[in-house]
Amino acid sequence: MAAIEVVDLAKTYGDLKAVDGVSLEVAEGEFVGILGPNGAGKTTTLEMIEGLRRPDGGSVTVLGEPVWPRNAGLLPRMGVQLQASSFFERLTAREQIHTFASMYGVPASAADDWLERVGLAGAGASTDKAETRVEDLSGGQAQRLSIACALVHDPEVVFLDEPTASLDPQARRNLWDLLSGLNDSGRTVVLTTHYMDEAEVLCDRVAIMDAGRVLQVDTPAALVRGLDAPARITVAPGQLDADAARAIAGVDDVTASVDGVVLTTRRPGPVLAHLAENDVLDGVRVQTGTLEDVFLELTGREYRA
Amino acid sequence: MRRQSPFVAISLAIVRGFVRDKASVFFALIFPLMFLVLFGGILGDQGQSKVDLIQVGDVSVIDDLPDDARAAFDDSFEVTESDDLDAAIAEVRKGDADVAVEMQGDTLVAHYTQTDQVKAGITQGTLRAFVDGANVALLEQEAGTGAPVSFRADRVEDDSLSTIQFITPGLLGWAVAMSAAFGAAATLQGWRQSKLLRRLQLAPVSTRTVVGARVTVAIGIALVQMAVFVLLGTLAFGLTLTGSWWMAIPLLVIGTLCFMSLGLLAGAITTTTEGAVNAANFMVLPMAFLSGSFFPLDDAPGWLRAVSDVLPLKHLNEGMLNVLVRGEGPASALVPMAILAGFAIVVTLVAARLFKWETA
């Protein structure tokens, strides 16, 4: 059984079709990312799946039950993290998660366990932030607490809306370690993001969204493979001149830049072998297609996060 | 560890949020108390001044005082003479004079009010002493030259109240109105902006539980305000509560609901927390002046009093005065309570119509 079934979902604000016929199926235990630039309709889609907004068209079922109107029986089985840090003001991290635990009828010990798991308390934590007020937490710590509050009742399905937005790259990567284990125990996770690398690292499957539509859904690798994008091999400056590069079998195009000579090829294997024979592999960089290229291919325009 | 009910957990979270917000605590308690101390301390300190006495017609006891006794009398009393007894008593009733004296046959009658108990005591005691002194002097003279004078004190039914008696209910009404309105406005805006409202919508707790917790905390704050005001007023400034003072409790509960609804309205029509608090301030502060929280409206022009009648705070203040200090029965709070409840319902409905989930 699919954990989440979204069929032809639509939402219009005035003249703007914020969500325009989105369909998506998420299997139990799957980690699915909704990837798209700001304003693509990711959050509106997610909030309709959570049951926060009434769809103008289409239907959503989570764990086999409709989410709209507010389905009280379903709420304890769902965990949500909204885009903003939705906290009670001036509580400490521990008081915060205890309050959420009480709302879900979960003992305080479970809340304390989660505080440790997200690295805000206990021996494993670099700094103990349990008694720090939420206003004084860093962006990354606040997101960790927010995620812990979403998970405190051990939900079967978790929705995370841009959990790493506005974090610095270091904090973002730290959070990935926490997020990547979320579906280990069979939990279903849906996350929105506008970071390509994040979707690539975390998600089993990625739905690429733009202008209210899902353009394609697949595993990150399959999306890139389907793109049939050429590889770009950059040889460090001064090791290979452009004419020699053009002579290598399999090279489609050569451009020279301050970074070195860039060889474009659809057969990177033989080209790399040739470079190895000529001993110019020092400092070589190989880039294959990325999700960004997929996005460009699908929409015909640059990705703007 | 015992599990808390969602209601208790949310209430506790709100209470913690309140007591840790120094600005909220300041405006709910310290700020109004500053006014109480100011008014109670400055205006209430009139015990040492002379007693204003109006002498109506000839009063032999005073007129015939020997010079040294007359000097002593003038130390205690500021004497004005008058021929009109009714006008004199009216002045006493309004609080412009403390006592009016006249002779009724051989009896010296003092018309006084109980407004200021200290002055009333001084007035009665001193006048009695002078009458006794005059009678003793009379006995020492040959018999038959004058009839002894007796003394009677007549209490005038007053509608003026001493400063502390008047100012405590009014300031308390203002303090409760202010913190209820600010609290509701700031909570609605803050929770909407942090999406906590949305988050709670996705938690398995009913709207009733969340609203109930917020209202319960607001009522608790109002009752703490009442306790602090009444204690400080009684202990430091001689406030005397009258019989049905306990009716102030249900009155304050309804008043809190009424001003929370105004706060919800302020929160619904604004888009930022600062805007919401400013809007609440804009509603409550002028209302406090127009509703007699700071000074009585008895002498205000008729149109102003007509305006004040449509303001909920006026009715809260009226009810508070009735039961806290005017000594009226419990029923005197019922009409104000009904009016406040009506306000609460109408304003809540309007606020609910204007409410939007999103601030953008």
TrEMBL record, chain A:
<feature type="domain" description="ABC transporter">
    <location>
        <begin position="4"/>
        <end position="236"/>
    </location>
</feature>
<dbReference type="InterPro" id="IPR017871">
    <property type="entry name" value="ABC_transporter-like_CS"/>
</dbReference>
<dbReference type="InterPro" id="IPR027417">
    <property type="entry name" value="P-loop_NTPase"/>
</dbReference>
<dbReference type="GO" id="GO:0005524">
    <property type="term" value="F:ATP binding"/>
</dbReference>
<dbReference type="InterPro" id="IPR003439">
    <property type="entry name" value="ABC_transporter-like_ATP-bd"/>
</dbReference>
<dbReference type="Pfam" id="PF00005">
    <property type="entry name" value="ABC_tran"/>
</dbReference>
<dbReference type="InterPro" id="IPR050763">
    <property type="entry name" value="ABC_transporter_ATP-binding"/>
</dbReference>
<keyword id="KW-0067">ATP-binding</keyword>
<keyword id="KW-0813">Transport</keyword>
<protein>
    <submittedName>
        <fullName>ABC transporter ATP-binding protein</fullName>
    </submittedName>
</protein>
<keyword id="KW-0547">Nucleotide-binding</keyword>
<dbReference type="InterPro" id="IPR003593">
    <property type="entry name" value="AAA+_ATPase"/>
</dbReference>
<keyword id="KW-0046">Antibiotic resistance</keyword>
<comment type="similarity">
    <text>Belongs to the ABC transporter superfamily.</text>
</comment>
UniProtKB/TrEMBL annotation, chain B:
<feature type="transmembrane region" description="Helical">
    <location>
        <begin position="333"/>
        <end position="355"/>
    </location>
</feature>
<dbReference type="InterPro" id="IPR052902">
    <property type="entry name" value="ABC-2_transporter"/>
</dbReference>
<dbReference type="InterPro" id="IPR047817">
    <property type="entry name" value="ABC2_TM_bact-type"/>
</dbReference>
<feature type="transmembrane region" description="Helical">
    <location>
        <begin position="211"/>
        <end position="239"/>
    </location>
</feature>
<keyword id="KW-0046">Antibiotic resistance</keyword>
<keyword id="KW-1003">Cell membrane</keyword>
<dbReference type="InterPro" id="IPR013525">
    <property type="entry name" value="ABC2_TM"/>
</dbReference>
<feature type="domain" description="ABC transmembrane type-2">
    <location>
        <begin position="120"/>
        <end position="358"/>
    </location>
</feature>
<dbReference type="InterPro" id="IPR000412">
    <property type="entry name" value="ABC_2_transport"/>
</dbReference>
<keyword id="KW-0472">Membrane</keyword>
<feature type="transmembrane region" description="Helical">
    <location>
        <begin position="25"/>
        <end position="43"/>
    </location>
</feature>
<protein>
    <recommendedName>
        <fullName>Transport permease protein</fullName>
    </recommendedName>
</protein>
<dbReference type="Pfam" id="PF12698">
    <property type="entry name" value="ABC2_membrane_3"/>
</dbReference>
<keyword id="KW-1133">Transmembrane helix</keyword>
<feature type="transmembrane region" description="Helical">
    <location>
        <begin position="171"/>
        <end position="191"/>
    </location>
</feature>
<feature type="transmembrane region" description="Helical">
    <location>
        <begin position="245"/>
        <end position="269"/>
    </location>
</feature>
<comment type="similarity">
    <text>Belongs to the ABC-2 integral membrane protein family.</text>
</comment>
<keyword id="KW-0813">Transport</keyword>
<keyword id="KW-0812">Transmembrane</keyword>
<feature type="transmembrane region" description="Helical">
    <location>
        <begin position="276"/>
        <end position="295"/>
    </location>
</feature>
